[in-house]
Amino acid sequence: xxxxxxxxxxxxxxxxxxxxxxxxxxAGSGHPGGSLSAADLITALYFGEMxxxxxxxxxxxxxxxxxxxxxxVPAQYAALGERGYFPVEEMMSLRKLGSPFQGHGNCHxxxxxxxxxxxxxxxxxxxxxxxxxxxxxxxxxxIYVLLGDGELQEGIVWEACMSAGHYKLDNLCVIVDWxxxxxxxxxxxxxxxxxIADKFRAFGFHTVETDGHDFARxxxxxxxxxxxxxxxxxIIARTVKGKGVSFMEDQAGWHGKAPNEEQARExxxxxxGEW
Length: 275
Known about the structure:
The protein is of the alpha/beta class.
């Protein structure tokens, strides 16, 4: 996919963050912290990395993205909306009764969602299956899956990674949103997940460590992963929970709490948006 100037992606990520704040505020519940930390990674995927077509979401040979940390779906909805899969305004019905835009993505109801996720760890297993299917179909499509760092405490993640390494799935790229926090506090206090890169290497992955908020480095990581043959790749992206909203940054309390009107207004204005 042709790449644009870095400023292009920064502007889209800014809009996506505004969409996240507004949607979670309107819902009165949701997960702003992890959605904001993943916003740049998801922007890079949909606008600079993946071969997808909003006019034909089921296009043969497309790349596929699985949001294994499904609670961060406001970031994915915003990216899909900004990419043209549907009007962004539609996602403002987030979590409302009868809305297709539920608190975890539903692949049967929202265009562009490839896998319904929610229970942490399961997205990686699905992505491994998709990668194997693409190999059998001789499809050129790549599979991308985004995990949270706390999610790495799930055993099913490592069972899937064992399979990915065993089958040498070089069409699979795992991305870890490593913001250091989870719902109960710091990873290091709850259940230490580091050293992450060493763990993936032990399962046969080519690993790349990067800054998950620096688009130049994110794209360098994708380019490196895309050139790997004979093994799956894992991109370990250091991020900040709540990135872009100063009072949410690096605060575990914003994992699963919606802002009130005053806080939402402050966040949107800080991001350069209109309330």
